[in-house]
Amino acid sequence: MADSKTLKDIQGEVHEYISQFKEGYFSPLSMLARMSEEVGELSREVNHRYGEKPKKPTEEENSIELELGDILFITVCFANSLGIDLTEAHDKVLHKFRTRDVNRWTKRDTES
After folding, report:
1. Where are the domains of the chain?
2. Taking Cα atoms as reference points, which of 64, 89, 63 lies closest to residue 76?
3. Region for 111 from its dihedrals, namely left if φ exceeds 0, alpha if ψ lies in -120 to 50, beta otherwise
4. What percentage of the chain has pLDDT greater than the value 90?
5. Who's near 80: CB < 8 A, 6+ residues apart?
6. H helices within 1-112, ranges in order?
7. Is the dihedral of CA 57, 59, 65, 68 positive or negative?
8. Which residue intervals define the domain NTP pyrophosphohydrolase MazG-like in the entry (predicted)?
9. Level-2 CATH architecture, domain 7-100
């Protein structure tokens, strides 16, 4: 079983990793381009697994899990470079969904 990590832990690990390089974090525009590339790679994997587009025999084996991991990594880099605490960002977004969208979706019955 994997260690339980908080978003703060993950942000710290990524910062420690990036800090060892003189180049540091990429610019926000470069990170947005990188994120777009990674989302495209995830789209390709999802399409291969659940869509109508099979992989070519010459295509490298990849996984949705790794593509999501790449997106998480670039998201953390993006947030770190801009001084954004992802736990706070998550809490704000969840609050927005719980208030703005409180009656938007059909709730499950809680009775068994």
Report:
1. 7-100
2. 89
3. beta
4. 70
5. 11, 14, 15, 18, 25
6. 7-19, 28-50, 64-82, 86-100
7. negative
8. 26-105
9. Orthogonal Bundle (1.10)
